[in-house]
Amino acid sequence: MRASGVLMPVSSIPSDYGIGCFSKEAYDFVDQLSEAGQKYWQILPLGPTGYGDSPYQSCSTFAGNPYFIDLGELIRENLLTEEECSSCDWGDNPSYVDYEKIYNSRFLLLRKAYDRAETESNEEYQEFLKQQNHWIWDYALFMAIKDSQKGISWAEWPREFQDHDSDAVKKARQELDREVGFYCFQQYLFHRQWMKLKEYANQKGIGIIGDVPIYVAPDSADAWADPGLFQFDENYLPVAVAGCPPDAFSATGQLWGNPLYDWKKHKEEGYFWWTKRMLRCMELYDIVRIDHFRGFDEYYSIPYGDKTAEKGHWEKGPGLELFHVLNSRIDSLQVIAEDLGFLTESVLEMVRESGYPGMKVLQFAFDGSAGNPYLPYKYDKNCVVYTGTHDNETTKGWMEHLNPHDAWFIRAYTDCENRSLDECVWGLIRAAQSSTADLCVIPIQDYLCLGNEARMNEPSTLGDNWKWRLQKEQLSYPVLERMRALTDLYGRA
Question: From the candidates 262, 391, 422, 458, which is the catalytic residue?
């Protein structure tokens, strides 16, 4: 079925409290998507942000980001006051998230709400804890111990706390009971509010596409609670870490630093952890985009301690065996395979055999080569086309930096030789919408013809990523009307 959608993270939704959340503005955005004829809203990972404020370095693959909890709802429930919320410093630029100020304000308020909540008598809360029993206690205890250790990585904790099953950890669970409860309470609020928003979107005919990083963060409850599932030594240090080899874009490769899975151990356990993970994903989303799908065929292993990715090597992953198991256990598992970058024939074969749609990105298409697989007329139907992703420049920003030949090629391809740069952006959107791809997803920045001031992430950099926010009234009726017209024209409504 042909359809179209919009890519925008929850953090970019307008709000009164420094960062996008599950507030009225989120519901308004869903209404706007419906008005524009969209059938999908693609978001970035919903987990708590970690190092560099990246949603791809989360302290839990199961938990939700407490930043997204709507404080307005807590005011209406008399758990907070308007004065308490408005008196916090949320930053002075509504176009960008100030994560330091968010961190300092948000948890202070959530702690006040927790102190006022009657969790023991709340049957809904108690039922939530039972339903999420397989992960929530490990996560909450991990965070409580982490706080008691002044936030340092679990690899630096005293040895007795590094061992998840030690007597010291069991004792800490009792001594830190109140703090553990605080983290459970955050997850209850997150889950309740997100599921309400998701249900609203679904009722409007809009599905949610979630993003699932292939790896977990090194400093995460996942690694701490189940170290045997990862390539750790006896001191809980990685034997090797994840990344990508040197290529035309990086002479030294990409050193991600995530711990690698012990796939033999996962297989011995019947891929139980992955089953739990994907069941949680299908609870939160309608479709999951799995990042770095190649890593299931082969993964790049870099010796721990190396400063670059130059000395890594490829190892075999579980391949389709993992997904055969998942499909047998999870009804209606829907996956988008992120199959970008250099792909071997074995990876291409794995994607074909899986039946999952891969990805096509228009920013990769116009290098002057007639054989470029990202040109729209080259697509199979079973794929998802994007103008760009969260890791790319905005389309306008990208076009501003093109060499003359590629710029000419795009203008000729989109019939925009004598038109403005904004109209060239719309020309590329039209090329994506008119393609044979079953699904077309456009970043909201491209519909608004924004430059790189609105870029979401520049890989391998720190400091200015994950910050951009949509402004109230910025997504205007004329833009929505034009989105709707293209969606109708190309049979995606």
Answer: 391
CA–centroid distance for 246 within its chain:
25
**Angle at alpha carbon of residue 167, lines to 165 and 171, rounded to 5°:** 110
How many CB atoms neighbour CB 458 within 10 A?
A: 14
Token representation of residue 131: 């339903």
Contact 75, 82 (CB under 8 A): yes
Is residue 391 annotated as part of the catalytic site, yes or no?
yes
Catalytic residue among 297, 338, 339, 393: 338
Predicted pLDDT of residue 126 = 96
306 is catalytic: no
Rounded to two decimals, the pTM is 0.96
Active-site residue (options: 291, 297, 339, 446): 291
The single residue listed with the structure tokens 């679990």 is 154
Q: What is the pLDDT averaged over residues 202-212?
A: 98
pLDDT over 70 percentage in the chain: 100
The pLDDT assigned to 332 comes to: 87
Active site residue 291: yes
